Amino acid sequence: MKIKVCAGSNCTLLGSMNILDQIDDLKDIISEDADNYSDEILEVEVIKCLGYCKNTNKKVAPVVVIDEEPMFNATSQAVMEKIVNKIRKQN
Ligand code: FES
User: Fold this and answer.
1) Residue range 59-85, pLDDT digits in tens
2) What predicted TM-score, i.e. pTM, was given to this entire model?
3) Is 14 touching ligand 1 by the criterion CB < 6 Å?
4) Whose CA is nearest to atom 1 of ligand 1?
5) Which domain of life is it from (predicted)?
6) Element (H or E) spanning 60, and its range?
7) CB of 71 shorter than 6 A to ligand 1
8) What contacts 84, CB < 8 A, 6 or more positions away?
9) What residues are paired with 3 via a beta bridge?
């Protein structure tokens, strides 16, 4: 899974670095509980402004893109849920 976290000034101001920290914590949780997750690797990329804030006057920051699907006004909780839902094994 490819995750891009925006590190541009708009997104940083609105908390994208907290989201990045949470993704790092989630990686640890997943590796300690490997039986319950697929072994898909989380590739996290930090990008200096993904460009979404430039082409709109809507509020979009912070932006996180998961497998090419952008999440606007992303919260840690929404990002974690999306990642976990994609990689948690169904019992
Ligand atoms: S600063 Fe994040 S999309 Fe521009």
Assistant:
1) 999 999 999 999 999 999 999 999 999
2) 0.94
3) no
4) 8
5) Bacteria
6) none
7) no
8) 26
9) 44, 66
Residue 91 predicted with pLDDT over 70: no
Q: What angle do CA 29, 31, 37 make, to 5 degrees?
A: 90
Cα gap 80→59, rounded to integer Å: 21
Ligand 1: residue of 13, 17, 47, 50 to mutate (most ligand atoms within 8 A of CB) is 50
Structure tokens at 4: 């891009």
CA 91 / ligand 1 centre spacing (Å)? 38
**pLDDT bracket for residue 57 (50, 70, 90):** confident
- Number of Cβ atoms within 10 Å of the Cβ of 30: 19
Domains and CATH numbers, the chain: 2-87 (3.40.30)
Mean local confidence (pLDDT), 8-14: 97
